[in-house]
Every structure is written in structure tokens, then in C-alpha cells.
Amino acid sequence: MNLDKVLSISGKPGLYELISRSKGGFIVKSMESGKKTAVSMRHNINVLGEIAIYTYDDEIPLYKVFNNIAEKESKGKTIDPKSSSNELKSYFQDVLPEYDEERVYVSNIKKVLQWYNSLIDLGISEFEAEKAQEREEER
Fold first, then answer.
1. Which secondary structure element, helix H or strand E, spans residue 90, and what is its range?
2. Cα distance between residue 53 and residue 59, in whole Å
3. Is residue 115 within 8 Å of residue 107, measured between CB atoms?
4. Taking the domain 3-48, which CATH number applies?
5. pTM for this one?
């Protein structure tokens, strides 16, 4: 799935698909219920395709991290995002050994694992991001 149209919206549970832009924000569809709703610009909106994880050398796009998790878990669900901090760090170390432990917090790891598990629950196990791929090609 192309992560450039998948959104996380502060104050709203779950993930959303971008349908279109409106005058004051966006029209989105809940990926779980399928209900469409308008979201104003005052909400903090994160596009999953634009998120990257810090490593000691560079930043790794989220879709690559998701693909690493999918490979590790045979396209199944990860450990529980509510696991202990040590378990989460150890798991993330297995998935992305070069992640920057000082700049990637446990709360970031939890969010990544929650998003991944949500997408797996929706039957999505192939991840890509067109914009991220274009940015990499420009380097």
C-alpha cells in the first residue's frame, strides 16, 4: 500500500485514508469503519509516507521499517506495543539495528508498532511510498 495517502490524526483513533483536500482541511476516510469525515487544519496530521526513523547515519523511511517488520514477522503482527520499554527497544533493534537510540524514543517505537499492527489488521502487508522513493532517487 502507498503510505502517502495514509494519515494519523491527533485526537482521533486509528488510521485514515486521504480522499481529497477541502477549503479548511481534508476529507478523510477511516480505514477501519470506512466513514468519511472532514478534518480541519488545526489537527496535527501525520502522513505516514513522510515519516522517517533516525539512524546513526541517515533517516530510514517508515515504509522500509514496515517492510523490515513484515519480513521478520512473515507479514504477521508484531509484539504488543504495550510491552515493556526494554522489550520494545530490543525488538526495534532486531528490526532496524542502526536506529539512533538517543533520538528514537520508546513512544516513537510504540506508535510505529501500533500503525503497523493496524495496517496488518486491515489486510495490508505490502508497503511503499512514492514520494519517499522519489526523494531517494534525487540523492
1. helix 85-95
2. 5
3. no
4. 2.30.30.730
5. 0.88
Task: Encode pLDDT of 9-48 as tens digits.
Answer: 998 999 999 999 888 899 999 999 999 999 998 889 999 9
15 CB-contact burial (10 Å; exposed 0-12 / middle 13-18 / buried 19+): buried
Closest CA to 16 of 1, 33, 117, 25: 33
Query: How many CB atoms within 10 Å of residue 126?
Result: 12
At residue 139, what is the residue type?
Answer: R
CATH 3.55.40.10 fits 50-138, yes or no: no
pLDDT digits (tens, 9 = 90+) for 88-123: 999 999 999 999 999 999 999 999 999 999 999 999
